[in-house]
Amino acid sequence: MKFTYWVTEDCNLRCKYCYVSKAPKTMNRETAAKAIDFTEKKLAANPLEHKDEIRIALHGGEPLLNYPIIHYLVEELKQKNHGEISFTMTTNGTIYNEEMLDYVSKNIQLTVSLDGKQESHDINRVYRNGKGSFNRVIETLDYINHQSHSFRVRMTVTPNNVSYFADNYIFLSEKGYPIVTFAMDESDSNWNKDLMKVYQSNLNEIFSYMVNNNLTKAQYFLYNFKNEHFRPRGVCDGCHNSFHISSEGKIYPCILAVGHGEFSMGDVFSDIIEQRLSNLDVINQKNQGACTKCAMYNNCRSKMCKIINKIQTGNYYESSPIFCATQRIHYSIVKEYEYILKNFEFLLSTH
To answer: Which ranges form a coiled coil (predicted)?
Structure first.
């Protein structure tokens, strides 16, 4: 089972592609305690579902702005002794406080947002006064890198930085960070056919770089990439096995649903509203629309994530054209590099 606590929706940055509310709320101790009670209740009701691992994500805004609640949640949940429990958190990397960083590095699997070189990062990831945040993030990463070797760096690819996508990815990889990941901001309406070609060219350059530098890492990279975009999809398990709890205690099925009143399934003070969840289940269990005719449908996010479809297109059963175009690119890249890596393996086995 997975529980995501939005410890704050406030942030010290004003990233241009951010989807979080600009009227921020912050989780208080009472709500945090009720969130833990809700978590305990769900785990007790579904013992088989959390047999292997309980996953807790701490989310924002910038979560470290509410560090006392992070500390409280982690320590309280660790004491419940439910077996294996893991904590994850994404931070913008701008809060350089060694006490905080020491604690989270020890207890939480960290992801730090960094979009690449300074020129690309500072295009979008800026403070309220418009100043770029690159230098502070690098300072934080340098410190974390000495404390832990199990963090990730995450890039966001946008229309205004996609031309430097490969260059940025290689830059971060060569800095020696353990894992570098990326995601496209598909909500940006400025994507077009020409920019998609730029994205594909840069993605191809990244895969080529991986193959030429370390074959084992390239195979691992391809495996994870394929699993991320083309793993078999079932029905959304939001508010069954996965819960997002907002700063004010409302319960939502997924990350993009938070803040959309129509997708609130209840709150931690009074529990899930079963009729709302039942109505959502009906929507999620139907397979309709043009997407069902696509050969990739059973391995596509669009099948499972009806809420994302609704938010992006206004239709539960229609996927975003930007997402579809991206998936076609991803599919062609996967096929190309599966072939290349198989040939490499064959050549190595014959020598």
So the answer is: none
